[in-house]
Amino acid sequence: MEENVLQQDVQDVAQEHHLLFAKLLFHEKPVLCSADAYKEALEKRLGDIDLVSDGNLSMFAVKGYCTKMLNDAKEEVEVPAMLNMIEPLEFKLDAISDLEKSQYWDVENALEQLSNCQYGISVFDMMSIGLPYQKRMELMVHAVEAALEMYPDCIGTYMDCSGKFMTRDQILSVQDKDIVYRFINMYVNVRFFNIQGKEDEHVIDSIGAYALEYPDVQMHFHSLNPNHVVGYVYNVLSYQLEHDFPIESKDTIDGINQEGYMDQNIPWTCQYEKSLIQPIRDVLDICPKEFAAGNREI
């Protein structure tokens, strides 16, 4: 991948994601699947569903995933989360930022594949921000997988919250894994940055957990194998998502040795702070002791 010089932008603050968007991408304009067919696919995964509207925007009320809201009379009522599918709209590679384009590690020839995609169908949630994040992950993982089953000609998915691109096969081939694994596989990108003017200094971070209103993971380091750190960041974020984010500032966690394995004899200290790389968001920063780079207060 061609190396571009990108600038840090501390003014680019992450937006709250009241809606989680997944865009299914196609070479040619697809025919929107029937709402009844998608409803049937969703019910196999999520239980009882009401079809609220049908047409260019299909809306589905997922009755087993309810959140509490205040009605016009200021009374607390339960409202089902909504899943939505929008008709095909034009998709252009120009809509993706240069920063996102520099971070496609999971798909071979990703930019070429994206440049050949001309249309996208969006799947997204509504009325779900009040759900526990575990339920919201379930909701969107199943919504995307069910949608992909409707469209065998779909090339892959693009996620607005992280810029992650994955092929249809990469998503549907891991349905035997747990929800955390599948959510990370779909939605979370782990990014790699060289620091200009600094020999062997890097930042590796995750992006995607912030869309659930939880911290991502970040390491600023030198003299470690970046491939090992990428796997480590994925593992730490998986642990956080699986265990309701138990790590607190000043906690120590197992670091990794030179072979890339987690080692309880290598304690690294954690601190919640703002990310170094945009979009600026909360991250769990891990200080790898003698391999740490930058100025730290830990």
UniProtKB/TrEMBL annotation:
Residues 205-286 form the DUF4261 domain. It comes from the Bacteria. InterPro entries: DUF4261. Pfam families: DUF4261. This is DUF4261 domain-containing protein. It comes from Amedibacillus hominis. The lineage of its organism: Bacteria, Bacillati, Bacillota, Erysipelotrichia, Erysipelotrichales.
